[in-house]
Amino acid sequence: MAAVQKLKRCVVPQTGKHTASVIFLHGSGATPYTPMHGALSHVWFDRYKISRNCPEHLESIEEMCSNLGAVVHDEIRAGVPEHRMVIGGFSMGGAMALHLACRYHQDVAGVFSLSSFLNRDSVVYQASAIFHSNLNDS
């Protein structure tokens, strides 16, 4: 499973009062990986195969969303409200950012995904549709 190691963080110290945060998630790195064969690799979540037309490996995505949620809550404890946070990433990190923000932290100021992907039937699409429907009902 992708989420076996403790998250390593690179925090840029603020020069003044800490009032906002950008959480940026890296891509899968230079190390190649084989989907679902138990090999250690630097990826955010497992994949059944490298294709947009297969189901997402939700167990590993959920585990990593929980781990990354702790990062968001650390920022909240430091005095930064969710509406002053942006979550984003590159490649697989961008996909992870979309899952984290669109499904669990919809109050963030923004989410971005650079050169990334979502599976064709991603649960992110469903979460986004529900969120926008709730906005329209308000």
TrEMBL record:
Gene3D superfamilies found in the cross-reference section: alpha/beta hydrolase (3.40.50.1820)
GO cellular-component term (any): cytoplasm
Keyword Hydrolase: yes
GO terms for MF: carboxylic ester hydrolase activity; palmitoyl-(protein) hydrolase activity
Taxonomy, superkingdom: Eukaryota
Residue ranges of domain Phospholipase/carboxylesterase/thioesterase in the record: 35-125
Enzyme Commission number: 3.1.2.22
UniProt KW ATP-binding keyword: no
Keywords associated with the record: Hydrolase
InterPro entries: AB_hydrolase_fold (IPR029058), LYPA1-2/EST-like (IPR050565), PLipase/COase/thioEstase (IPR003140)
Pfam families for this protein: Abhydrolase_2 (PF02230)
Assigned protein family: Belongs to the AB hydrolase superfamily. AB hydrolase 2 family.
Protein name: palmitoyl-protein hydrolase
UniProt source species: Electrophorus voltai
Lineage start: Eukaryota, Metazoa, Chordata, Craniata, Vertebrata
